[in-house]
Amino acid sequence: MFTKLRPFLIVFFISIGTLFSQQEKGIYGIENWLSIWTDFNPGATTYKTPTQILSGTITEDTKLLKRETYLLLGNVFVADSTSLTIEPGTVILGDFKSKGSLIISNGSKIIAEGTQTDPIIFSSSRGIKKKGDWGGIFILGNAPVNKIDDELVLDYGLKPSSTELVRYGGNDVESNSGILKYVRIEYAGMRTKDFGYFNGLTLAGVGSETRVENVMVTYCQGSAYQILGGNTYLSQLVSFRTRINDLVLNYGAHASINNSLIVRSPYFTQAGGASSIYLATYANIEEADPSKENTHLNAENLTLLTLSDDLKADIKIGLVSEAMHVKEGASFSINKSIFSGFNPAVVLDKSITINAANLDIMEFSNMYFNNCNGNIFTEGYSNNEDLENWYGNNIFRNVYSKGSDSETFIDTKNLKEPDFRLRINRIIASSLLDDE
User: Fold this and answer.
1) Whole-angstrom distance between the N-terminal and C-terminal Cα of the chain?
2) Looking at 129-253, which runs of residues are DSSP E strands?
3) Across the chain, which distance is largest between two alpha carbons, in Å?
4) What pLDDT does residue 23 have?
5) 121 and 47 in contact (C-beta within 8 Å)?
6) Coil, strand, or helix at residue 212?
7) Separation CA 54–CA 105 (nearest Å)
8) d(Cα 338, Cα 300) in Å, to the nearest integer?
9) Could you give the CA distance from residue 251 to residue 281 in angstroms, rounded to a whole number?
10) Would the pTM count as exceeding 0.70?
11) What are the backbone dihedrals phi and psi of residue 294, each rounded to the nearest 5 degrees, phi first?
12) CA 232, 235, 237: angle at the middle one, nearest 5?
């Protein structure tokens, strides 16, 4: 019996290995890692009335407990090298009236380590929740930033009692600001008159010992994730229906991002469009220190997807923008990723000269560009022949397709339990079993 089954088992495991090697693009996992801890419809969830208030400046090690519900009142700072520890399953509600925000000052830590079955939740205090109901989370570290100033101040109008509470940046590439794991951030991104929109999660000068994984930002009025300088490793991030950008890197940020998901919606994006990923090295070249490193993104197994009821119509009326926008000086290496349903897939700033030196630091390999209205363009130019020839070279192994969402992904319709992994064909037992 075993002798007869052995050829089948060998072929079976070879087939399994081949399918996984062929379908390794985009988010991956033998099981759907989005299960249980995520919530793609947080507006339907009702949280308990707050029993505790967080306000002012926290200067002693503090632990938040699951049995309580906390109201984040105004701008709350964690300072003086203290730690804020949050139990799995704890709910913290950002106050709508005072636009609550949480700021982890340079030298302090947040230890927010939820679990798959008990995530930590930051959400809105309102019964009927809307984007921008509260501020967001800021983590300030001591890693390098490429601005000229030695002492950088986070300029969001947070009104700290001392500027020391909002300083960031330094020389410690490996600095540790704590951990965010199995954390949801919902309805953040308030708008301010003088400082624009807050973001769901801002990492400013954060070092590589800081752990950020399994974090979900939903319905953010600003950008979901903003990384200012620093050296970060992030894994299994989710951004869902963000209004502006999903991921912003600037000021010499060095970030490695793995196995992460961005889901855009034409009906929740700001007028005029916004990129899923926005890479820049400076806002103004005069403020950048040329002796310091430029921004670089190293990413693998990303899935960027626009969910639309009618993608062609939404593109035609200008509701869909590019997946990625790259400014002068920024570089990237993106591998095994999916860009699906964008207009176009990538836009390079018009100031970037298309030559060998620049193309060598802007790498796309093993990509799956699907259902995009054009692939890679220079801003303001309709002729992208040079870029198409470069990235279309067989050595990069990039694939271009026009598959529907149902053909491309396992399940994008059921937002109660979605599965955005790339669809793979079922293995059907062959006639080798007939030899038994």
Assistant:
1) 7
2) 137-140, 152-153, 167-168, 178-186, 191-192, 196-197, 201-204, 211-218, 225-228, 231-240, 247-250
3) 80
4) 55
5) yes
6) strand
7) 16
8) 10
9) 5
10) yes
11) -80, 170
12) 105
Coil, helix or strand at residue 313: helix
> In the chain, which residues have pLDDT < 70?
1-23, 150-151, 271, 425-436
Q: Rounded to an integer, what distance in angstroms lies between the CA atom of residue 369 and that of residue 339?
A: 5
Residue 427 phi, psi dihedral angles, 5° rounding: -90, 125
* DSSP SS3 for 327: coil
Residue 289 token pair: 């220190």
Distance CA 386, CA 392 (A): 10
Residue pointed to by tokens 């319709």: 413
**Tokens coding 234:** 């992030």
Q: 187: closest CA among 43, 79, 311?
A: 43
- Alpha-carbon span 219 to 186, nearest angstrom: 6
Cis before 344 (ω within 30): yes
pLDDT in the model for residue 271? 67
Q: What is the DSSP letter of 366?
A: S
Query: What percent of the chain has a predicted confidence (pLDDT) above 70?
Result: 91
Tokens matching residue 384? 């992208």
For residue 393, what pLDDT is reported? 94
Tokens representing 39 are 């919530």
Fold of 2-435: Pectate Lyase C-like (2.160.20)
- Spatial distance between the Cα atoms of 332 and 202, rounded to a whole number of angstroms: 20
**Bridge partners, residue 52, by sequence:** 70
Which residue ranges make up each domain of the chain?
Answer: 2-435
Environment class of residue 374 by beta-carbon count within 10 Å: exposed (0-12), middle (13-18) or buried (19+)? Answer: middle
pLDDT of residue 86: 98
Element (H, E) at 16: helix 2-22
* Burial class for 289, CB neighbours closer than 10 Å (0-12, 13-18, 19+): middle
* pLDDT digits 0-9 by tens, 41-86: 999 999 999 999 999 999 999 999 999 999 999 999 999 999 999 9
In this prediction, residue 17 carries a pLDDT of 44
Q: What is the number of alpha carbons within 13 Å of residue 30 lying toward its C-beta?
A: 2
pLDDT computed for residue 424 by the predictor: 73
- 3-state SS track over 384-409: CHHHHHHHCCHHHCCEEECCCHHHHE
